[in-house]
TrEMBL record:
Residues 17-397 form the Major facilitator superfamily (MFS) profile domain. One of its GO terms (cellular component) is plasma membrane. InterPro entries: MFS (IPR011701), MFS_dom (IPR020846), MFS_Efflux_Transporters (IPR050189), MFS_trans_sf (IPR036259). This is Predicted arabinose efflux permease, MFS family. It is a multi-pass membrane protein.
């Protein structure tokens, strides 16, 4: 009876911890793209007075992603040495302080600097939350909480995109006050979360003490390229909407929110597709959906067509992170898990940061924005075809190693 009660208590505690970690992870989506609908109004305020506004305004959105890409490996290294829980608490406090700061600043330079520092806090939050999932759970339980993390990011992101867009109708400064809300999580982090002992985690979750190098490299490459494609929607869709006559921040925010809501659908579908097609097959499917979504986005000439495009794109994007993260987690022993996941986080946000740069490079070859998006859609289709061939070869040989490892 006592053993049964202990098992029940551990399970209930695990659910509470999982919910808190998922909510903590969702802070990164609030931080990286929630201010995208505010760009037009920020441009109207800072454009006439700042000579470099055209360059700095996009950096207010993508700058945190660059900071995360730089700081995440360091955050992972520190979490391996000093622990995840305390770092998560401190980073959440800094997230709130630095997040709300632009609401009080009158200079564009100060806004950009505060956003870069804000990204450093995001790096620690995302790395610690993901590492804690890998520390607390293993095998199928781990995948369940990875999926919970992505689902929560989609739900929270969708809600705050819309809320941010509505608040932005009054002033571009108002949405930044939403960054104070994570302060409410800190007492729960302190009470519910616990610091895993690395030697115990090693014994429970590791079948080997060596890093699986090839899956790790493939996973890093996939998440970076995937984020280049994924971030086309939040960064480029507002410009495309303006070009077809949609200038309302509410409508722009709704489009971004629908995209995130579609990622929720993709995340919910992921376990079914993973069981049916394996990791490689899911990579083929999600890259194909992203390709189709981007193609439709480039050719959309009405608001409704844009909404259809971001929905298709979002479903593919929703499967991407859990599918690749499953491979990354299984490739890392506990002793270097923080550093390895820090590398994953770095590649994820580096892909976000370079996304508009890649689009700009494609445009420099003589195409317009829709043409550049079509080119990247074709690149996504090529990657999808490669994964499809790989999946079929592995399936035909009866050795779909990725699916077995995920299971």
């Amino acid at each position: 009876m006592d053993n049964q009660n202990q098992k029940t208590i551990r399970t209930a505690s695990g659910r509470r911890e999982g919910i808190l970690i998922a909510l903590g992870s969702s802070l990164t989506i609030m931080g990286s793209v929630m201010v995208a609908p505010m760009l037009p109004k920020m441009g109207m305020e800072f454009g006439p007075t700042h000579p470099q506004a055209d360059m700095l305004l996009p950096l207010a959105i993508t700058g945190p992603a660059l900071a995360i890409a730089i700081c995440a490996p360091l955050a992972g290294w520190l979490s391996d040495r000093t622990g995840r829980k305390n770092m998560l608490i401190i980073a959440t406090l800094l997230y709130a302080i630095l997040g709300v700061l632009p609401a009080f600043l009158n200079g564009l330079d100060g806004v950009v600097i505060s956003r870069l520092l804000f990204g450093c806090a995001e790096a620690a939050i995302m790395t610690c939350c993901t590492a804690l999932i890998a520390d607390y759970w293993h095998a199928e339980e781990r995948l369940k909480f990875v999926n919970m993390q992505v689902v929560c990011i989609g739900l929270v992101g969708s809600a705050f995109f819309v809320i941010g867009g509505v608040l932005g109708e009054q002033s571009w400064r108002l949405p930044f006050y939403l960054y104070l809300l994570p302060l409410l999580l800190i007492p729960f982090f302190m009470r519910v979360l616990w610091e895993p002992k690395h030697h115990e985690v090693q014994q429970i979750t590791d079948t080997t003490s060596r890093v699986a190098t090839l899956p790790l490299i493939v996973g890093y490459s996939m998440i970076m390229f995937g984020m280049v494609l994924n971030f086309i929607v939040p960064i480029q869709a507002p410009s495309l909407l303006v070009s077809i006559g949609v200038v309302s921040t509410t409508k722009i925010g709704l489009a971004a929110g629908l995209s995130l809501l579609a990622t929720l659908a993709g995340s919910l579908l992921w376990p079914v597709f993973r069981s049916s097609f394996g990791i490689a097959g899911c990579n083929a499917l999600l890259m194909a959906l992203i390709a189709v979504g981007l193609w439709f986005l480039a050719h959309a000439n009405t608001y409704n067509k844009v909404m259809i495009a971001v929905t298709i794109h979002g479903i593919g994007a929703g499967m991407m992170v859990p599918n690749i993260m499953a491979t990354i987690m299984n490739a890392l022993p506990a002793s270097v898990r923080g550093r390895g996941i820090g590398g994953f986080t770095s590649c994820l946000y580096l892909g976000q940061f370079i996304s508009p740069i890649i689009v700009g490079i494609v445009i420099s070859f003589g195409v317009d924005l829709p043409g550049a998006i079509v080119s990247l859609a074709m690149a996504s289709a090529v990657v999808a075809a490669i994964w499809l061939i790989f999946s079929l070869v592995r399936r035909n040989s009866g050795a779909d190693l990725a699916a077995k490892r995920a299971a």
